[in-house]
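**Backbone geometry record:**
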Amino acid sequence: MDESKIKKILESVKSGKLSVNAAFNRFKHLPYEDLSFAKVDHHRHIRQGIPEVIFAEGKKVEDVIAIARSMYRKSKKLLITKVSKEIYDALKIKDAVFYPSSGTISVGGEKKRKGHILILSAGTSDIPVAEEAEVTASFLGSRVEGIYDVGVAGIHRLVDIKKSIDSAKVIVVVAGMEGALPSVVGSFTDKPIIAVPTSIGYGTSLGGLTALFSMLNSCVPGIAVMNIDNGFGAGCLAHKINTLS
């Protein structure tokens, strides 16, 4: 339940269209609903501006389904990350969209898209993390543009997307291997940059640690760095920056 729905319920009570008891029944699961194995935070969107999102990895299929259905009953929208095709098939929600590359499921989401977030991936192998950021920011209500495979091994490719870089309010840059792309992009733009290291790379990439350290040690000021493979976190931060004004 979000702020607009709560206001609508209160206005219905004020106008006499809805009884106090009926309104109470709609509010009784605020701030959370106890499912014993999970406490579903229906109130989070009002407090934080970002609704609770289901992280499916490590959870039983039936638990993910139960949490998802609880959230869908209240808000008619939900986002699930690190999800399998098995969970998608078991969910059985008509409007659910499954993104197999990133392992995300989106239902509903904000209909109006605001601003402009640009999401870049260094390589094709980085697309799953970039797509997670893209799906997340779009679900939250940001207008997102994704451009993939523009890494530093072919740096001339960035010239062709300069218009997109200039028009974006915030840029998410996803890269594995040595993680150099955020610094390169940051060298010719004044836009906020969110760097996301991925676990893609050969042995000494150390599962993304090399890219993470490279991004943290960038000599370009003002770059925010997310955890390894955390496209979801990047999408959330980019959305918050994108909708500040």
Observations:
- The chain has a mean pLDDT of 87.
- Residues 28-107 form one domain.
- The chain has two domains: 28-107, 114-242.
